[in-house]
Amino acid sequence: MRIAFVILVCFFIVILQTTFAPKLAIYGVFPNLILVLVIFKSLFKNYKEIFIWPLAGGLILDIFSSFPFGVFTLSFLIVSLAVSFLSRNIWSSEFIGLVVMLITFLGSILSGFLTAIFSKLGYLFINLSWAFNFKQILVITFSEAIYNVILAAILFLVLRKFRFLK
Amino acid sequence: MLVIFLNFLGFRDFQNLFSRATSPIQAGFNISSQKIYNFFRAVFTLPKLRGENKNLKEENQKLLLQVIGLREKTKENEVLRAQLNQEQVKGSKLLMARVIGREPQNLAQLLLINKGLKDYVSVGMPVVDKGGALVGKIVTAFSNTSKVLLATDPNSIINGVLQASQVTGIVNGEYGLGMLMEMIPQNEEVKIGDVVVTSGLGGEFPSGVFIGKVNKIIEQETEIFKKAWIKPAAVFNHLETVFVILEY
User: Fold this and answer.
1) Which of A34, B119, B133, B236 is the most buried (most CB within 10 A)?
2) Model-level pTM?
3) Hey, how many other C-beta atoms are within 10 angstroms of the C-beta on B12?
4) What gap in Å lies between CA A117 and CA A115, rounded to an integer?
């Protein structure tokens, strides 16, 4: 039942990612809604309890994406693990909002580079070439990370307002 | 790495099936999000629109006069063609398609359209917007839907030509940030605002399709070639309808 709920939520967010998120693009860059969801889930709970979220989110995103299958699943699982590790003691912090934003930023940067590296490897694996321009990937990843941080800040404020946070 | 192995196990067939099932949902969501976007855009740009409206009315008057003049010239052209016994350029066969989704991440620039193999769309076909500006080409064709690789994707390589000087170059996508025209010989003159169109070399695109305009020139004396940033003619983020060129 819980797995069905996770798949349904992830599917809905990925649909929004392919239809609504591009409308928010600034200079061609738009936020990654599913990544922000995965990071938020990883912030709240232990990795073992929530790994279904990056798994389902990554798999559904992989189905919709043109990148080699598995790229997002792998990078989301790693990002979720890293975020879960980084956020073990953040709830006692006075500056929790800032910490959440910082972790979202770092998680987004990590996800961007893992996606780019796994894609390059994935394409090599299936004997296809994929343009890999480090400078441009850095610009895109950095811009997307800032966008994700803004989204995370809004989400954090909303969740705190409605007392969804501890 | 196990999941990456799935790429060999008929994953595209599964994607095709999934695409067939989800494309109506995506299309519905896309229309709704476009409506929401248009509403907020209208609200925020209302004061600006009033001024623009006045300017457009004036411009419209001027354009009407130009259209009358051009109609006369078209007639004259037809007469001259007939006199020269020249065959009209064969018209392209276009297929209208609705954009139903986009690539869900920023590192690749692709569109999902609601026409596929069933509508005689096949890989490699060029795609233009309603104004005739180049959008990209079909890279994946499923039965009901297709994926269009945008001209701003880093894997997009187009043979372009500067319309005024007929200088050729290679137009590469730059991760949605624009396009870069490379391999322009140092001795050739390039100006800001120069129109870039497809050259037709290589046969991937018909010649003369509007790509964009030069908005920055990068030249270094030590290099053999210079580069130019191209501002795309198509507005990729807000495309609702595109046209697949089935024949040209």
Assistant:
1) A34
2) 0.79
3) 13
4) 6
Question: Contact at 8 Å (CB) between A73 and B3?
Answer: yes
Distance between the two ends of chain A, CA-based, in angstroms?
25
Task: Among B2, B3, B14, pick the best mutation site for testing chain A contact (most A Cβ within 10 A).
Answer: B3
- Whether A22 sits inside 8 A of B18 (CB atoms) is no
pLDDT of B83 over the 70 cut: no
Q: Do B106 and A144 touch (CB under 8 A)?
A: yes
The label of the residue with tokens 């989704």 reads B101
pLDDT at B179 over 70: yes
Contact A144, A108 (CB under 8 A): yes
Structure-model confidence comparison of residues B157 and B88, the more confident one = B157
Residues B192-217 have pLDDT tens digits of: 989 999 988 888 889 889 999 999 99
Of the candidates A152, A161, A158, A160, the one whose C-alpha atom is nearest the C-alpha of residue A41 is A152
The helix or strand, by DSSP H or E, that contains position B75, with its residue range, turns out to be helix B11-84
Q: Which of B3, B33, B238 sits opposite A69 (nearest CB)?
A: B3
Contacts of B236 in chain A (CB under 8 A): 28
Average pLDDT over chain B reads 83
How far apart are alpha carbons B40 and B235 in whole angstroms? 18
CB pair distance less than 8 Å for B104 and A131: no
- Assess: ipTM above 0.85: no
Checking if the pLDDT of A55 tops 90, the result is yes
CB pairs under 8 A between A and B: 128
Helix, strand, coil abundance in chain B, percent, nearest 5: 35, 30, 30
For residues B17 and A69, give the distance between their C-alpha atoms in angstroms, rounded to a whole number: 15
